[in-house]
User: What shape does this take?
Amino acid sequence: EEGSEGRESGYWRLSKLAVPASDDPGKDFTGISLPLLQAIAKAIKFPVASMLPDEAFTVIRKSFDARKVLKEPQFSYTVDMDVKKLLDMEPRAWDFIARLEPKLGAVEYMPKEKLASDLVSMLNVSNEGYNNELGIRDTHNGSICPQDKKPRVAVIGSGPSGLFASLVLGELGAKVTLLERGQPVEQRGRDIGALAVRRILQSESNFCFGEGGAGTWSDGKLVTRIGRNTDGVQAVMKTFVHFGAPRNILVDGKPHLGTDKLVPLLRNFRHYLKELGVTIRFNARVDDLIVEEGQVKGIVVSDSELRPGSGSQKLSFDAVVLAVGHSARDTYNMLQQHNVDISPKSFAVGLRIEHPQELINSIQYSELAAEVQKGRGRIPVADYKIVKSLGEIDAGDEVDIAEQSRTCYSFCMCPGGQVVLTSTDPSELCINGMSFSRRASKWANSALVVTVSSHDFKPFESHGPLAGVEFQREFERRAAMMGGGNFVVPAQRVTDFINNRLSVTTLPSSSYRLGVRPSKLHELFPPYITEALQQSIIMIDREMPGFVSSEALLHGVETRTSSPLQISRHGETYESTSLRGLYPVGEGAGYAGGILSAAVDGAITKIWRFWM
Ligand code: FAD
Assistant: This one.
């Protein structure tokens, strides 16, 4: 027992606990089952699993693992063991716990404090008002700024970054006005319905613009590359739960919400912000900034339904958070007119592929696929994630070797989902994917995209730092023309795409509601993109035999994978390097790519420093 002193409390985190899928209660169960207790007992070398009290364990993560290397598909768990609870109920466990090594790969000791995290401890602001588990204050008296010196902050955009910026700034006592060009979710839902049924695209209320931002009518995947266990991500996830997301998003290895869960969550978010004193204005597009001596002094806002400039209003603010997403091309132009420091950024473009979900289930799960199809709901519908590095691809002359290698990867994979129109202008056509929480549609779609960088935007260099935006627009216009108008999407069987030929027989069914038209998608992009896509599709089929199938349909185009530019800002404060008082955040500013990273980026805006 040497060295085990002080460990009678605190937690052990036990990871990689495997429970065979056939013994597990199923994907939605996040409690402690007997087979899981058996896996725990094995990890801590405790002889009788059934003697371990359930109450001492909490499931932190649960993922489905159907890799072919396993004898049998399994659920893989991470569990926290509360030592004090365990010893209170089963003192004999101490003999085994005392022998555990503090850090042994899958078994790790953590002092209690390490488990707590909330929005405000993340910001390192000490404030007694913030005391509950979620980091959202219980009373409205927790303001850290003096009553007579409440800064007036405009937050432009109500996507994840703008919402979280408003939440944190409101919590900290600023006088926040949230301006959103689109409509609240209730009206936005009707506008999106009208698009699907009557082909009416509202330029200010659509899949990209409106309350909740681009990720609202989406798959709501809550996965991120910025680290699932970081304080920021944990705080954002807990805030989602506070506003009505199911608790198992905190546990699920690949959490997702689905549109039906996101819409009520956003409504609760809005009510909370209003209660906090945040002024929320929908249908309010910010057309300009008021700048004096290199400092933002306010904004010019218009009724979105009117032409820019007409019926506009000037409002003064001490600071402006710019959280406009990457489809606000008019806003980018406006920033350029104010000489805001912007530089082009690499991103990725490509096509969206759709397969029957049953085909993906059988490729990924083999025999187990039958269980998914029976709809027993124990096993999640199959997804996939692919990254392929391609060797040298001819991108023209003057390219150095480093720039010649490209990556092709799957992006925003939506199992049981549908392909949707994400255009914001009727002359352009671009798509993405969404799903509902049950992921019950008969299709599986995913974008296959190829990295592009500033070298590729050269033909558009007259647009300066906005060259990447023009690059996107070029292919969106071509796609609209290929589809023949009316938001019909150009499509091609994957088997024909890799052979450079038009699909002549009837296309397989598509989830896209506004129609598809057989097209030469292999002629839409320049050869360096088309060839990269073709090569990687062939490589993917080697890994996932059946991926290249006459039932798989490619749709064009996917261009808005992430921002084509970055707005320079100071690392510490997030203030623009070229315009004082402007705080660019989220995906549109080039600092996030997805719901979680955008939310975290907005939440940690350090504007509050200037009144402390
Ligand atoms: P946005 O969400 O784009 O929000 C910007 C907001 O600003 C918009 O509401 C817009 O109307 C408003 N705005 C713009 N200009 C102005 C102006 N001048 N004045 C006033 N308001 C303005 N990510 C995931 O992590 N998981 C997914 O499953 C997922 N699926 C997606 C599916 C679809 C169909 C789409 C389109 C995107 C999806 N994404 C997904 C990406 C995700 O939505 C974005 O990364 C995220 O929303 C970016 O957040 P943001 O706050 O930076 O910007």
Remarks:
- The radius of gyration is 26 Å.
- The CA atoms of residues 460 and 467 lie 5 Å apart.
- The first strand starts at residue 11 and ends at 20.
